[in-house]
Please model this.
Amino acid sequence: MTGAGSATAVARADAWLLHALERLLGRLPIGWLQLRHSRARLLSAVGGVAFAGLLVLMQLGFQGALVGSIALPYRALDAQLLISATDMNTLSDASPIARARLWQALSVPGVQAVTPVHLGRVDWRQPDGSLRTLDVLGFEPATTPLRPASIRHQQAALAEADTVMIDARTRGVDPARLRAASPETPLVLELRGQRIQVAGHFEIGGGFSADGYLLASDQTFLRLFPSRSAGAPNLGLVTLQPGADAATVAAAIRQRFGPADDVKVRTLDEAIAADQRFQQTQRPVGLIFGFGVVMGVLVGIVIVYQVLSSDVADHLREYATLKAVGYPGRFFLGIVFEEAVILGVLGFVPGLLISVGLYAVVAAQTGLPMALTAGRAAAVLVGTVLMCTLAGALATRRLARADPADLF
Amino acid sequence: MATTPSPGPVSIAVRGLQHGFGEGEARKQALFDVDLDIHAGELTVLMGASGSGKTTLLTLLGCLRGVQEGQVRLLGQELLGADQATLVRMRRHLGFIFQAHNLHDSLTALQNVRLGLAVHGAAVSGPWQAAGEHLLGLLGLAERLHYVPARLSGGQKQRVAIARALVGNPDVVFADEPTAALDRDSALQVVHLLKALGRERGTTVLMVTHDSKVIDLADRILTMEQGRLVDDQRPAARV
Model:
Protein backbone atom coordinates (compact mmCIF):
# COMPACT_ATOMS: atom_id res chain seq x y z
CA MET A 1 0.00 0.00 0.00
CA THR A 2 1.33 3.45 -0.91
CA GLY A 3 1.70 6.28 1.59
CA ALA A 4 -1.28 8.10 0.07
CA GLY A 5 -3.29 4.89 0.10
CA SER A 6 -2.60 4.19 3.75
CA ALA A 7 -3.46 7.79 4.62
CA THR A 8 -6.79 7.37 2.86
CA ALA A 9 -7.42 4.13 4.71
CA VAL A 10 -6.66 5.81 8.05
CA ALA A 11 -8.98 8.69 7.15
CA ARG A 12 -11.74 6.24 6.25
CA ALA A 13 -11.25 4.27 9.47
CA ASP A 14 -11.31 7.53 11.41
CA ALA A 15 -14.53 8.63 9.71
CA TRP A 16 -16.09 5.23 10.35
CA LEU A 17 -15.11 5.33 14.04
CA LEU A 18 -16.47 8.84 14.40
CA HIS A 19 -19.74 7.82 12.80
CA ALA A 20 -19.99 4.68 14.96
CA LEU A 21 -19.35 6.63 18.16
CA GLU A 22 -21.88 9.25 17.11
CA ARG A 23 -24.50 6.57 16.57
CA LEU A 24 -23.62 4.91 19.86
CA LEU A 25 -23.69 8.09 21.94
CA GLY A 26 -26.46 9.84 20.04
CA ARG A 27 -24.36 12.99 19.99
CA LEU A 28 -21.09 14.33 18.71
CA PRO A 29 -18.31 12.25 20.36
CA ILE A 30 -16.57 15.30 21.80
CA GLY A 31 -14.53 13.19 24.21
CA TRP A 32 -13.01 11.12 21.42
CA LEU A 33 -12.42 14.21 19.27
CA GLN A 34 -10.62 15.93 22.15
CA LEU A 35 -8.48 12.89 22.87
CA ARG A 36 -7.64 12.47 19.21
CA HIS A 37 -6.78 16.12 18.87
CA SER A 38 -4.02 15.89 21.51
CA ARG A 39 -2.09 12.93 20.12
CA ALA A 40 0.77 13.13 22.61
CA ARG A 41 -1.62 13.21 25.54
CA LEU A 42 -3.62 10.35 24.07
CA LEU A 43 -0.50 8.24 23.57
CA SER A 44 0.79 8.86 27.06
CA ALA A 45 -2.63 8.09 28.54
CA VAL A 46 -3.00 4.90 26.54
CA GLY A 47 0.55 3.94 27.52
CA GLY A 48 -0.24 4.56 31.18
CA VAL A 49 -3.45 2.56 31.09
CA ALA A 50 -1.67 -0.22 29.18
CA PHE A 51 1.05 -0.30 31.83
CA ALA A 52 -1.50 -0.43 34.64
CA GLY A 53 -3.46 -3.14 32.82
CA LEU A 54 -0.27 -5.10 32.21
CA LEU A 55 0.65 -4.80 35.87
CA VAL A 56 -2.76 -6.08 36.93
CA LEU A 57 -2.76 -8.88 34.35
CA MET A 58 0.70 -10.05 35.41
CA GLN A 59 -0.15 -9.95 39.12
CA LEU A 60 -3.37 -11.84 38.44
CA GLY A 61 -1.35 -14.27 36.35
CA PHE A 62 1.05 -14.86 39.23
CA GLN A 63 -1.87 -15.17 41.62
CA GLY A 64 -3.54 -17.61 39.23
CA ALA A 65 -0.29 -19.54 38.98
CA LEU A 66 -0.12 -19.68 42.77
CA VAL A 67 -3.68 -20.94 43.00
CA GLY A 68 -3.20 -23.33 40.09
CA SER A 69 0.09 -24.72 41.34
CA ILE A 70 -1.40 -25.33 44.79
CA ALA A 71 -4.12 -27.46 43.23
CA LEU A 72 -1.80 -29.50 41.00
CA PRO A 73 -0.54 -32.07 43.56
CA TYR A 74 -3.98 -32.41 45.16
CA ARG A 75 -5.49 -33.11 41.76
CA ALA A 76 -2.95 -35.89 41.23
CA LEU A 77 -4.19 -37.68 44.37
CA ASP A 78 -6.62 -40.51 43.73
CA ALA A 79 -8.95 -39.91 46.67
CA GLN A 80 -12.21 -38.24 47.55
CA LEU A 81 -11.39 -37.41 51.17
CA LEU A 82 -8.23 -36.29 52.91
CA ILE A 83 -7.36 -37.01 56.51
CA SER A 84 -4.67 -34.75 57.90
CA ALA A 85 -3.46 -33.11 61.08
CA THR A 86 -5.71 -30.33 62.31
CA ASP A 87 -2.93 -27.79 61.91
CA MET A 88 -2.36 -28.56 58.23
CA ASN A 89 -2.63 -25.50 56.03
CA THR A 90 -0.66 -26.71 53.03
CA LEU A 91 0.74 -30.04 51.90
CA SER A 92 4.22 -28.98 52.96
CA ASP A 93 3.28 -28.19 56.57
CA ALA A 94 1.08 -31.21 57.32
CA SER A 95 2.15 -32.64 60.68
CA PRO A 96 2.29 -36.43 61.05
CA ILE A 97 -0.85 -38.18 62.26
CA ALA A 98 -1.35 -41.47 64.07
CA ARG A 99 -1.77 -44.33 61.63
CA ALA A 100 -4.44 -45.71 63.93
CA ARG A 101 -6.70 -42.87 62.76
CA LEU A 102 -6.57 -44.30 59.26
CA TRP A 103 -7.66 -47.72 60.53
CA GLN A 104 -10.54 -46.05 62.29
CA ALA A 105 -11.59 -44.33 59.08
CA LEU A 106 -11.37 -47.59 57.18
CA SER A 107 -14.07 -49.05 59.42
CA VAL A 108 -16.60 -46.40 58.45
CA PRO A 109 -19.31 -47.56 56.02
CA GLY A 110 -18.77 -46.21 52.52
CA VAL A 111 -14.98 -46.15 52.81
CA GLN A 112 -13.25 -48.44 50.35
CA ALA A 113 -9.60 -47.76 51.18
CA VAL A 114 -7.40 -45.44 53.20
CA THR A 115 -3.86 -44.99 51.94
CA PRO A 116 -1.18 -43.45 54.14
CA VAL A 117 1.10 -40.94 52.43
CA HIS A 118 4.28 -39.44 53.87
CA LEU A 119 5.33 -35.95 52.87
CA GLY A 120 8.82 -34.52 53.03
CA ARG A 121 11.10 -32.07 51.26
CA VAL A 122 14.62 -32.51 49.90
CA ASP A 123 17.12 -30.29 48.15
CA TRP A 124 18.75 -31.59 44.99
CA ARG A 125 22.08 -29.95 44.18
CA GLN A 126 22.69 -29.35 40.49
CA PRO A 127 26.08 -29.60 38.74
CA ASP A 128 26.26 -25.80 38.72
CA GLY A 129 25.84 -25.75 42.50
CA SER A 130 22.27 -24.48 42.52
CA LEU A 131 19.59 -26.28 44.48
CA ARG A 132 16.23 -27.64 43.37
CA THR A 133 13.67 -28.16 46.09
CA LEU A 134 11.56 -31.27 45.67
CA ASP A 135 8.50 -32.34 47.63
CA VAL A 136 8.61 -36.09 48.28
CA LEU A 137 5.49 -38.26 48.50
CA GLY A 138 6.12 -41.63 50.08
CA PHE A 139 3.59 -44.47 49.93
CA GLU A 140 3.37 -48.24 49.78
CA PRO A 141 4.14 -49.26 46.16
CA ALA A 142 1.30 -51.74 46.25
CA THR A 143 -1.23 -48.94 46.70
CA THR A 144 -2.31 -46.49 44.02
CA PRO A 145 -2.67 -43.12 45.70
CA LEU A 146 -1.92 -41.13 42.56
CA ARG A 147 -4.26 -40.68 39.67
CA PRO A 148 -2.11 -40.34 36.53
CA ALA A 149 -2.03 -43.63 34.64
CA SER A 150 1.62 -43.00 33.73
CA ILE A 151 2.52 -43.19 37.43
CA ARG A 152 0.60 -46.40 38.02
CA HIS A 153 2.24 -47.91 35.00
CA GLN A 154 5.74 -47.26 36.32
CA GLN A 155 5.31 -47.33 40.09
CA ALA A 156 6.25 -51.02 40.46
CA ALA A 157 9.84 -49.87 40.06
CA LEU A 158 9.51 -47.99 43.35
CA ALA A 159 9.59 -51.32 45.18
CA GLU A 160 13.35 -51.31 44.60
CA ALA A 161 15.25 -49.74 47.47
CA ASP A 162 16.42 -46.14 47.04
CA THR A 163 14.46 -45.75 43.85
CA VAL A 164 12.20 -42.80 43.03
CA MET A 165 10.17 -41.31 40.18
CA ILE A 166 10.72 -37.68 39.35
CA ASP A 167 8.56 -34.85 38.11
CA ALA A 168 9.75 -34.25 34.53
CA ARG A 169 8.48 -30.64 34.84
CA THR A 170 10.83 -29.91 37.71
CA ARG A 171 11.85 -26.27 37.36
CA GLY A 172 15.35 -25.54 36.14
CA VAL A 173 16.21 -29.07 35.02
CA ASP A 174 16.35 -30.31 31.44
CA PRO A 175 13.10 -32.29 31.07
CA ALA A 176 14.64 -34.54 28.41
CA ARG A 177 17.22 -35.68 30.97
CA LEU A 178 14.46 -36.53 33.44
CA ARG A 179 12.26 -38.25 30.87
CA ALA A 180 15.17 -40.45 29.81
CA ALA A 181 15.38 -41.98 33.30
CA SER A 182 14.17 -45.62 33.39
CA PRO A 183 14.90 -48.80 35.37
CA GLU A 184 17.37 -49.72 32.64
CA THR A 185 19.02 -46.32 32.42
CA PRO A 186 18.43 -44.75 35.82
CA LEU A 187 19.42 -41.20 36.69
CA VAL A 188 21.42 -41.16 39.90
CA LEU A 189 20.88 -38.32 42.38
CA GLU A 190 22.43 -37.55 45.71
CA LEU A 191 19.74 -36.57 48.18
CA ARG A 192 20.35 -35.99 51.88
CA GLY A 193 23.68 -37.76 51.56
CA GLN A 194 22.25 -40.84 49.90
CA ARG A 195 22.51 -42.09 46.36
CA ILE A 196 19.03 -42.37 44.92
CA GLN A 197 18.22 -43.64 41.47
CA VAL A 198 15.42 -42.27 39.33
CA ALA A 199 13.63 -45.06 37.50
CA GLY A 200 10.74 -43.19 35.92
CA HIS A 201 8.99 -39.88 35.58
CA PHE A 202 5.60 -38.21 35.78
CA GLU A 203 4.42 -34.64 35.28
CA ILE A 204 2.93 -32.30 37.86
CA GLY A 205 5.00 -29.12 37.80
CA GLY A 206 6.52 -26.95 40.47
CA GLY A 207 4.84 -24.32 42.52
CA PHE A 208 5.96 -21.34 44.57
CA SER A 209 7.50 -23.35 47.42
CA ALA A 210 9.02 -26.31 45.56
CA ASP A 211 10.45 -26.85 42.10
CA GLY A 212 8.93 -30.28 41.55
CA TYR A 213 7.99 -33.61 43.09
CA LEU A 214 9.49 -37.01 43.83
CA LEU A 215 7.55 -40.22 44.39
CA ALA A 216 9.10 -42.85 46.61
CA SER A 217 8.11 -46.03 48.36
CA ASP A 218 7.45 -45.61 52.07
CA GLN A 219 10.66 -47.53 52.75
CA THR A 220 12.79 -45.25 50.57
CA PHE A 221 11.03 -42.25 52.11
CA LEU A 222 11.94 -43.43 55.61
CA ARG A 223 15.56 -43.89 54.58
CA LEU A 224 15.60 -40.34 53.24
CA PHE A 225 13.92 -39.07 56.41
CA PRO A 226 15.16 -41.37 59.18
CA SER A 227 13.57 -39.27 61.91
CA ARG A 228 10.14 -40.01 60.52
CA SER A 229 8.07 -43.03 61.57
CA ALA A 230 6.17 -45.50 59.45
CA GLY A 231 3.37 -45.24 61.99
CA ALA A 232 2.94 -41.53 61.49
CA PRO A 233 2.13 -40.59 57.90
CA ASN A 234 1.14 -37.04 56.97
CA LEU A 235 -1.99 -37.81 55.00
CA GLY A 236 -4.63 -40.45 54.78
CA LEU A 237 -6.16 -40.66 51.32
CA VAL A 238 -9.68 -41.99 51.52
CA THR A 239 -11.30 -43.59 48.48
CA LEU A 240 -15.01 -44.22 48.71
CA GLN A 241 -17.11 -47.14 47.63
CA PRO A 242 -19.02 -46.50 44.41
CA GLY A 243 -22.13 -44.40 45.08
CA ALA A 244 -21.03 -43.22 48.51
CA ASP A 245 -21.55 -39.53 49.24
CA ALA A 246 -18.32 -37.78 50.19
CA ALA A 247 -19.88 -35.27 52.60
CA THR A 248 -21.89 -37.99 54.35
CA VAL A 249 -18.89 -40.30 54.72
CA ALA A 250 -16.70 -37.40 55.91
CA ALA A 251 -19.25 -36.63 58.61
CA ALA A 252 -19.33 -40.29 59.61
CA ILE A 253 -15.54 -40.41 59.86
CA ARG A 254 -15.52 -37.28 62.03
CA GLN A 255 -18.09 -38.92 64.27
CA ARG A 256 -15.95 -42.04 64.47
CA PHE A 257 -12.92 -39.97 65.46
CA GLY A 258 -14.91 -38.51 68.32
CA PRO A 259 -14.18 -35.29 70.15
CA ALA A 260 -10.37 -35.47 69.76
CA ASP A 261 -9.11 -32.62 67.57
CA ASP A 262 -5.80 -34.04 66.35
CA VAL A 263 -7.05 -34.72 62.82
CA LYS A 264 -9.49 -33.26 60.32
CA VAL A 265 -11.36 -34.79 57.41
CA ARG A 266 -12.05 -32.80 54.27
CA THR A 267 -13.04 -33.43 50.71
CA LEU A 268 -10.28 -32.86 48.22
CA ASP A 269 -11.98 -29.68 46.99
CA GLU A 270 -12.28 -28.34 50.53
CA ALA A 271 -8.61 -29.03 51.17
CA ILE A 272 -7.59 -27.29 47.94
CA ALA A 273 -9.78 -24.27 48.66
CA ALA A 274 -8.44 -23.97 52.21
CA ASP A 275 -4.82 -24.25 51.02
CA GLN A 276 -5.38 -21.64 48.31
CA ARG A 277 -7.11 -19.32 50.76
CA PHE A 278 -4.30 -19.71 53.28
CA GLN A 279 -1.52 -19.05 50.78
CA GLN A 280 -3.30 -16.05 49.27
CA THR A 281 -4.19 -14.41 52.54
CA GLN A 282 -1.59 -15.60 55.07
CA ARG A 283 1.58 -16.15 53.08
CA PRO A 284 3.65 -13.15 51.95
CA VAL A 285 3.70 -14.29 48.34
CA GLY A 286 -0.10 -14.28 48.07
CA LEU A 287 -0.36 -10.92 49.81
CA ILE A 288 2.28 -9.43 47.51
CA PHE A 289 0.34 -10.46 44.41
CA GLY A 290 -2.86 -9.01 45.84
CA PHE A 291 -0.98 -5.84 46.69
CA GLY A 292 0.41 -5.76 43.15
CA VAL A 293 -3.11 -5.77 41.73
CA VAL A 294 -4.06 -2.87 43.99
CA MET A 295 -0.90 -1.00 42.96
CA GLY A 296 -1.71 -1.52 39.28
CA VAL A 297 -5.21 -0.15 39.77
CA LEU A 298 -3.88 2.84 41.74
CA VAL A 299 -1.25 3.60 39.07
CA GLY A 300 -3.98 3.45 36.43
CA ILE A 301 -6.29 5.72 38.39
CA VAL A 302 -3.55 8.30 38.96
CA ILE A 303 -2.48 8.33 35.30
CA VAL A 304 -6.00 8.54 33.91
CA TYR A 305 -6.99 11.13 36.51
CA GLN A 306 -4.02 13.29 35.53
CA VAL A 307 -4.89 13.05 31.86
CA LEU A 308 -8.62 13.67 32.24
CA SER A 309 -8.13 16.34 34.84
CA SER A 310 -5.72 18.24 32.56
CA ASP A 311 -8.13 17.80 29.70
CA VAL A 312 -11.01 19.26 31.72
CA ALA A 313 -8.80 22.14 32.88
CA ASP A 314 -7.77 22.88 29.29
CA HIS A 315 -11.37 23.07 28.14
CA LEU A 316 -12.98 24.93 31.02
CA ARG A 317 -13.87 27.97 28.89
CA GLU A 318 -15.40 25.79 26.18
CA TYR A 319 -17.37 23.85 28.77
CA ALA A 320 -18.49 27.11 30.38
CA THR A 321 -19.66 28.29 26.96
CA LEU A 322 -21.68 25.12 26.52
CA LYS A 323 -23.10 25.54 30.01
CA ALA A 324 -24.20 29.01 28.96
CA VAL A 325 -25.83 27.55 25.87
CA GLY A 326 -27.93 25.37 28.17
CA TYR A 327 -26.19 22.02 28.30
CA PRO A 328 -26.92 20.28 31.60
CA GLY A 329 -24.21 18.98 33.95
CA ARG A 330 -24.71 15.39 32.83
CA PHE A 331 -23.62 16.35 29.31
CA PHE A 332 -20.15 17.26 30.57
CA LEU A 333 -19.98 14.19 32.79
CA GLY A 334 -20.80 12.21 29.66
CA ILE A 335 -17.82 13.73 27.84
CA VAL A 336 -15.42 12.89 30.66
CA PHE A 337 -16.77 9.36 31.02
CA GLU A 338 -16.64 8.91 27.25
CA GLU A 339 -12.95 9.78 27.40
CA ALA A 340 -12.44 7.47 30.38
CA VAL A 341 -14.06 4.48 28.67
CA ILE A 342 -12.15 5.09 25.43
CA LEU A 343 -8.85 5.30 27.34
CA GLY A 344 -9.76 2.13 29.22
CA VAL A 345 -10.47 0.16 26.06
CA LEU A 346 -7.56 1.58 24.05
CA GLY A 347 -5.14 1.02 26.93
CA PHE A 348 -6.35 -2.48 27.64
CA VAL A 349 -5.55 -3.82 24.16
CA PRO A 350 -1.75 -3.23 24.17
CA GLY A 351 -1.59 -4.29 27.82
CA LEU A 352 -3.31 -7.55 26.91
CA LEU A 353 -1.07 -8.20 23.91
CA ILE A 354 2.11 -7.60 25.90
CA SER A 355 0.87 -9.76 28.77
CA VAL A 356 0.19 -12.67 26.39
CA GLY A 357 3.87 -12.62 25.47
CA LEU A 358 5.03 -12.19 29.06
CA TYR A 359 2.81 -15.02 30.29
CA ALA A 360 4.48 -17.34 27.79
CA VAL A 361 7.96 -16.17 28.84
CA VAL A 362 7.22 -16.59 32.57
CA ALA A 363 5.61 -20.01 32.03
CA ALA A 364 8.62 -21.17 30.02
CA GLN A 365 11.11 -19.82 32.56
CA THR A 366 9.39 -20.96 35.75
CA GLY A 367 7.18 -23.85 34.75
CA LEU A 368 4.34 -22.14 36.59
CA PRO A 369 0.82 -22.63 35.23
CA MET A 370 0.48 -19.10 33.78
CA ALA A 371 -2.75 -19.15 31.80
CA LEU A 372 -4.44 -16.04 30.46
CA THR A 373 -8.04 -17.13 30.39
CA ALA A 374 -10.77 -15.30 28.49
CA GLY A 375 -12.54 -14.79 31.81
CA ARG A 376 -9.50 -13.09 33.35
CA ALA A 377 -8.99 -10.92 30.26
CA ALA A 378 -12.66 -9.91 30.30
CA ALA A 379 -12.49 -9.20 34.03
CA VAL A 380 -9.42 -7.00 33.56
CA LEU A 381 -11.10 -5.17 30.66
CA VAL A 382 -14.12 -4.45 32.83
CA GLY A 383 -11.82 -3.53 35.72
CA THR A 384 -9.75 -1.22 33.49
CA VAL A 385 -12.86 0.56 32.25
CA LEU A 386 -14.14 0.88 35.83
CA MET A 387 -10.73 2.15 36.96
CA CYS A 388 -10.78 4.79 34.21
CA THR A 389 -14.37 5.68 35.04
CA LEU A 390 -13.44 6.18 38.69
CA ALA A 391 -10.55 8.40 37.61
CA GLY A 392 -12.98 10.23 35.33
CA ALA A 393 -15.41 10.70 38.21
CA LEU A 394 -12.61 12.29 40.24
CA ALA A 395 -11.68 14.51 37.30
CA THR A 396 -15.25 15.76 36.88
CA ARG A 397 -14.92 17.70 40.13
CA ARG A 398 -13.02 20.27 38.10
CA LEU A 399 -16.05 20.81 35.90
CA ALA A 400 -17.66 22.79 38.69
CA ARG A 401 -15.09 25.50 38.02
CA ALA A 402 -16.55 26.10 34.56
CA ASP A 403 -18.78 29.09 35.39
CA PRO A 404 -20.48 30.62 32.36
CA ALA A 405 -20.94 33.90 34.24
CA ASP A 406 -17.16 34.36 34.06
CA LEU A 407 -17.24 34.42 30.26
CA PHE A 408 -18.61 37.96 29.92
CA MET B 1 -38.86 61.09 7.08
CA ALA B 2 -38.29 57.71 8.75
CA THR B 3 -41.18 56.31 10.74
CA THR B 4 -40.66 54.58 14.03
CA PRO B 5 -41.76 50.95 13.80
CA SER B 6 -44.20 49.91 16.47
CA PRO B 7 -42.31 47.93 19.16
CA GLY B 8 -42.95 44.20 19.51
CA PRO B 9 -44.01 42.51 22.72
CA VAL B 10 -41.74 42.91 25.72
CA SER B 11 -39.07 40.19 25.81
CA ILE B 12 -37.28 41.37 28.90
CA ALA B 13 -38.91 43.31 31.73
CA VAL B 14 -36.77 44.46 34.64
CA ARG B 15 -38.09 46.18 37.76
CA GLY B 16 -36.09 47.37 40.75
CA LEU B 17 -33.16 45.05 39.99
CA GLN B 18 -30.34 45.17 42.52
CA HIS B 19 -27.29 42.95 42.70
CA GLY B 20 -24.19 42.80 44.84
CA PHE B 21 -21.12 40.64 45.33
CA GLY B 22 -19.54 39.54 48.59
CA GLU B 23 -20.79 39.49 52.16
CA GLY B 24 -20.92 41.93 55.05
CA GLU B 25 -18.57 44.88 54.91
CA ALA B 26 -16.84 43.45 51.86
CA ARG B 27 -20.08 43.49 49.89
CA LYS B 28 -19.96 45.58 46.73
CA GLN B 29 -23.17 46.67 45.11
CA ALA B 30 -23.01 46.30 41.31
CA LEU B 31 -26.56 47.25 40.28
CA PHE B 32 -28.96 49.77 41.80
CA ASP B 33 -32.68 49.84 41.05
CA VAL B 34 -32.55 49.04 37.36
CA ASP B 35 -35.86 49.35 35.50
CA LEU B 36 -35.95 48.34 31.86
CA ASP B 37 -38.21 46.96 29.12
CA ILE B 38 -36.67 45.49 25.97
CA HIS B 39 -38.98 44.62 23.11
CA ALA B 40 -38.81 41.66 20.78
CA GLY B 41 -36.89 42.35 17.59
CA GLU B 42 -34.92 45.27 19.03
CA LEU B 43 -31.16 45.55 18.68
CA THR B 44 -30.16 47.25 21.88
CA VAL B 45 -26.64 48.40 22.61
CA LEU B 46 -25.49 48.60 26.20
CA MET B 47 -22.67 51.02 26.87
CA GLY B 48 -20.75 52.04 29.91
CA ALA B 49 -17.32 52.21 31.44
CA SER B 50 -15.64 49.23 32.98
CA GLY B 51 -17.30 48.47 36.32
CA SER B 52 -20.51 50.28 35.38
CA GLY B 53 -22.55 47.09 35.88
CA LYS B 54 -23.29 46.17 32.27
CA THR B 55 -21.67 42.73 32.53
CA THR B 56 -23.56 41.98 35.72
CA LEU B 57 -26.80 43.04 34.04
CA LEU B 58 -26.01 40.82 31.04
CA THR B 59 -25.29 37.77 33.21
CA LEU B 60 -28.51 38.26 35.17
CA LEU B 61 -30.70 38.73 32.10
CA GLY B 62 -28.91 35.80 30.46
CA CYS B 63 -29.76 33.45 33.36
CA LEU B 64 -26.07 32.96 34.12
CA ARG B 65 -26.55 34.18 37.69
CA GLY B 66 -29.47 34.00 40.08
CA VAL B 67 -31.44 37.20 40.68
CA GLN B 68 -30.99 38.46 44.26
CA GLU B 69 -33.47 41.30 44.44
CA GLY B 70 -35.99 42.85 42.09
CA GLN B 71 -37.93 41.36 39.23
CA VAL B 72 -36.63 40.06 35.92
CA ARG B 73 -39.18 38.65 33.52
CA LEU B 74 -37.50 36.97 30.56
CA LEU B 75 -39.72 35.64 27.77
CA GLY B 76 -42.55 35.51 30.29
CA GLN B 77 -40.56 33.59 32.92
CA GLU B 78 -39.89 35.26 36.28
CA LEU B 79 -36.22 34.73 37.16
CA LEU B 80 -36.35 35.85 40.79
CA GLY B 81 -36.27 32.64 42.82
CA ALA B 82 -35.84 30.45 39.73
CA ASP B 83 -33.90 27.26 40.45
CA GLN B 84 -30.82 26.14 38.54
CA ALA B 85 -32.76 23.76 36.32
CA THR B 86 -35.08 26.59 35.27
CA LEU B 87 -32.12 28.84 34.50
CA VAL B 88 -30.52 26.09 32.39
CA ARG B 89 -33.80 25.50 30.57
CA MET B 90 -34.25 29.22 29.91
CA ARG B 91 -30.74 29.49 28.51
CA ARG B 92 -31.74 27.16 25.71
CA HIS B 93 -33.90 30.01 24.38
CA LEU B 94 -30.93 32.34 24.39
CA GLY B 95 -27.86 32.84 22.28
CA PHE B 96 -24.52 33.99 23.67
CA ILE B 97 -21.70 35.64 21.80
CA PHE B 98 -18.68 36.20 23.98
CA GLN B 99 -15.67 38.40 23.40
CA ALA B 100 -13.53 35.25 23.17
CA HIS B 101 -14.74 32.70 20.67
CA ASN B 102 -14.32 29.72 23.07
CA LEU B 103 -14.51 27.21 20.24
CA HIS B 104 -13.55 23.59 20.85
CA ASP B 105 -10.14 23.30 19.25
CA SER B 106 -10.71 19.66 18.35
CA LEU B 107 -13.98 20.28 16.50
CA THR B 108 -14.44 21.65 13.00
CA ALA B 109 -16.32 24.89 12.36
CA LEU B 110 -19.44 22.94 11.43
CA GLN B 111 -19.17 20.67 14.48
CA ASN B 112 -18.79 23.70 16.75
CA VAL B 113 -21.88 25.26 15.22
CA ARG B 114 -23.69 21.99 15.62
CA LEU B 115 -23.16 22.20 19.39
CA GLY B 116 -25.40 25.25 19.37
CA LEU B 117 -28.18 23.17 17.90
CA ALA B 118 -27.66 19.81 19.59
CA VAL B 119 -28.65 21.30 22.95
CA HIS B 120 -32.18 21.41 21.59
CA GLY B 121 -32.05 17.65 21.04
CA ALA B 122 -31.24 17.84 17.34
CA ALA B 123 -30.79 14.34 15.94
CA VAL B 124 -27.42 12.92 14.95
CA SER B 125 -28.25 13.43 11.31
CA GLY B 126 -30.85 15.61 9.67
CA PRO B 127 -31.53 19.24 8.93
CA TRP B 128 -29.00 20.52 11.48
CA GLN B 129 -26.22 20.09 8.99
CA ALA B 130 -28.00 22.18 6.36
CA ALA B 131 -28.83 24.87 8.96
CA GLY B 132 -25.23 25.03 10.13
CA GLU B 133 -23.83 25.12 6.63
CA HIS B 134 -26.32 27.82 5.61
CA LEU B 135 -25.46 30.06 8.54
CA LEU B 136 -21.72 29.62 8.10
CA GLY B 137 -22.23 30.41 4.41
CA LEU B 138 -24.08 33.62 5.31
CA LEU B 139 -21.10 34.58 7.46
CA GLY B 140 -18.68 33.95 4.62
CA LEU B 141 -17.32 30.65 5.83
CA ALA B 142 -18.75 28.26 3.26
CA GLU B 143 -15.23 27.21 2.31
CA ARG B 144 -14.16 26.66 5.90
CA LEU B 145 -16.85 24.28 7.17
CA HIS B 146 -14.46 21.47 7.99
CA TYR B 147 -11.59 23.57 9.30
CA VAL B 148 -10.59 23.26 12.95
CA PRO B 149 -10.13 26.60 14.78
CA ALA B 150 -6.34 26.41 14.52
CA ARG B 151 -6.71 26.83 10.75
CA LEU B 152 -9.04 29.82 11.01
CA SER B 153 -8.19 33.50 11.49
CA GLY B 154 -9.37 35.36 14.61
CA GLY B 155 -12.26 36.93 12.70
CA GLN B 156 -13.28 33.61 11.20
CA LYS B 157 -13.30 31.98 14.63
CA GLN B 158 -15.50 34.76 15.96
CA ARG B 159 -17.91 34.29 13.05
CA VAL B 160 -18.08 30.56 13.84
CA ALA B 161 -18.91 31.46 17.46
CA ILE B 162 -21.64 33.82 16.20
CA ALA B 163 -23.04 31.05 14.01
CA ARG B 164 -23.02 28.73 17.04
CA ALA B 165 -25.03 31.30 19.00
CA LEU B 166 -27.58 31.87 16.24
CA VAL B 167 -28.09 28.41 14.77
CA GLY B 168 -30.61 27.41 17.41
CA ASN B 169 -32.93 30.32 16.50
CA PRO B 170 -32.65 31.96 19.94
CA ASP B 171 -35.35 34.35 21.08
CA VAL B 172 -32.80 36.62 22.71
CA VAL B 173 -29.11 37.09 21.87
CA PHE B 174 -26.67 38.43 24.45
CA ALA B 175 -23.41 39.60 22.95
CA ASP B 176 -20.27 41.02 24.48
CA GLU B 177 -18.16 43.01 22.02
CA PRO B 178 -18.97 40.52 19.24
CA THR B 179 -17.33 42.58 16.51
CA ALA B 180 -14.10 43.38 18.31
CA ALA B 181 -12.14 40.78 16.36
CA LEU B 182 -13.80 41.54 13.03
CA ASP B 183 -12.85 43.86 10.20
CA ARG B 184 -15.29 46.57 9.18
CA ASP B 185 -17.04 44.56 6.47
CA SER B 186 -17.40 41.45 8.62
CA ALA B 187 -18.64 43.53 11.55
CA LEU B 188 -21.32 45.16 9.39
CA GLN B 189 -22.23 41.78 7.96
CA VAL B 190 -22.78 40.41 11.48
CA VAL B 191 -24.81 43.40 12.64
CA HIS B 192 -26.99 43.29 9.54
CA LEU B 193 -27.54 39.60 10.16
CA LEU B 194 -28.61 40.30 13.74
CA LYS B 195 -30.93 43.07 12.59
CA ALA B 196 -32.42 40.78 9.96
CA LEU B 197 -33.09 38.18 12.65
CA GLY B 198 -34.86 40.83 14.69
CA ARG B 199 -36.93 41.91 11.72
CA GLU B 200 -37.81 38.44 10.43
CA ARG B 201 -37.96 36.33 13.57
CA GLY B 202 -38.41 38.91 16.31
CA THR B 203 -35.05 38.01 17.84
CA THR B 204 -34.08 40.43 20.59
CA VAL B 205 -30.41 41.43 20.71
CA LEU B 206 -28.74 43.00 23.72
CA MET B 207 -25.17 43.84 22.97
CA VAL B 208 -22.34 45.35 24.93
CA THR B 209 -20.17 47.26 22.50
CA HIS B 210 -18.26 50.44 21.95
CA ASP B 211 -17.91 49.85 18.23
CA SER B 212 -19.28 52.92 16.44
CA LYS B 213 -20.17 50.82 13.37
CA VAL B 214 -22.58 48.86 15.51
CA ILE B 215 -23.85 51.76 17.56
CA ASP B 216 -24.88 53.56 14.38
CA LEU B 217 -27.15 50.64 13.48
CA ALA B 218 -28.66 50.08 16.93
CA ASP B 219 -32.38 50.55 17.56
CA ARG B 220 -31.69 51.63 21.08
CA ILE B 221 -28.68 52.66 23.14
CA LEU B 222 -28.57 52.20 26.89
CA THR B 223 -25.83 53.72 29.00
CA MET B 224 -24.87 52.60 32.48
CA GLU B 225 -22.85 54.35 35.14
CA GLN B 226 -21.95 53.02 38.55
CA GLY B 227 -24.63 50.35 38.50
CA ARG B 228 -27.42 52.60 37.29
CA LEU B 229 -29.10 53.02 33.94
CA VAL B 230 -28.45 56.68 33.18
CA ASP B 231 -29.42 57.08 29.53
CA ASP B 232 -31.84 55.45 27.12
CA GLN B 233 -31.88 56.67 23.51
CA ARG B 234 -33.65 55.52 20.36
CA PRO B 235 -31.62 56.94 17.44
CA ALA B 236 -34.31 56.15 14.87
CA ALA B 237 -36.90 57.99 16.96
CA ARG B 238 -34.56 60.97 17.09
CA VAL B 239 -34.48 61.00 13.29
